[in-house]
Amino acid sequence: QVAQSDSAVLIQGESGTGKELIAHLIHSESPRAAFPFVTVHVAALTETLLASELFGHEKGAFTGATERKIGRFERANGGTLFLDEISDIPESMQTKLLRVLQSNEFERVGSAKTIRSDVRIVCATNKNLKEEAEAGRFRQDLFYRINVILLEVPPLRERREDIALLVNHYLKYFSDKNRKKIDSITPEALSALSQYDWPGNVRELKNIMERVVVLSRSNTITWEQLPDDIRRKDKLENR
Asked: Nearest Cα to 93, choosing from 142, 58, 23, 37?
């Protein structure tokens, strides 16, 4: 339902819950699927680099700009632009981003030529963006612009029914990837994994499943093969 629209989407959830995966899914199920899906990890860029990454720059626009660069907005034309960790965008860039979202127009750094780009915006954050806006740390007008459709991704500890599905999925995935024939997991091991709180969410579960598959010497994952933290918590809860 969301994918078929062109509305902006804000995906909120803890780190490791799969926000970028959901953004990819929205794009792949949308009428824009044949066009680019372009990602910008906002938190990883300084303010100067972020302007260049989003809007591009002309040759000579600043020291080190030895050639023209096409920005992410331009590259995503016709498709989807995914802004990850949108809450970390600097305040001055929030103003520029709001203008682009309102008009679909921007200029490359160092140029006065206006460029139009037709993109669908999907944003993600591990913070409560409404609270950030109310506290003055994020522009309210930009918040309302990107918060047309809000998708809340619950942490793994609040959807424990998914744990067994994910465990079995990654068991097969990493067995195939590492050319191993591990085809089962004991009930005791699965129970311990299901009771663990997963502070790192799906990303942590994936990491642990890869580790136990790589180190396993049998075709069954057992309780003894699980990391100490998981076995320790299982002992405390079941003694």
From this structure: 142
